[in-house]
């Protein structure tokens, strides 16, 4: 496992210490879990952005296909 060094505002560090203590875990474990949670949230946001971008790319083609189906439904013999 690698070690890192970072600077945090005193208030954030103190709140993290208190929360870790209340949860009966080390501050390091608390920080690891916070980073893991943020990584999960970031992955979910990035996945949502990719899906939205793909949806925008196919939107106009989908509208054309929907219009064709609607025309067939209105007049199946056309």
Fold and architecture overview:
The protein is mostly helical. It has one domain. It has two helices and no strands. It has helices at 10-22, 27-74. The radius of gyration is 25 Å and the shape is rod-shaped.
Q: Determine the structural class based on helices, strands and strand pairing.
A: mainly alpha
User: Which stretches are poorly predicted, pLDDT < 50 over at least 5 residues?
Assistant: none
Please give the number of β-strands. 0
Number of H/I helices:
2
Number of domains: 1
Average pLDDT level: 92
The helix/strand order is HH
Shape field = rod-shaped
Q: What amount of the residues lies in strands?
A: under 5%
CA-to-CA gap between the ends? Answer: 68 Å
How would you characterize the largest beta sheet?
A: none
Rg: 25 Å
Task: Briefly say what this structure is.
The protein has 78 residues and is mainly alpha-helical. Helices cover 78% and strands 0% of the residues. Helix 1 (10-22) crosses helix 2 (27-74).
Layout of secondary structure:
Blueprint: H1 10-22, H2 27-74
Helix pairs in contact: 1-2
Name a few traits of the molecule.
78 residues, 78% helix, single chain, mainly alpha
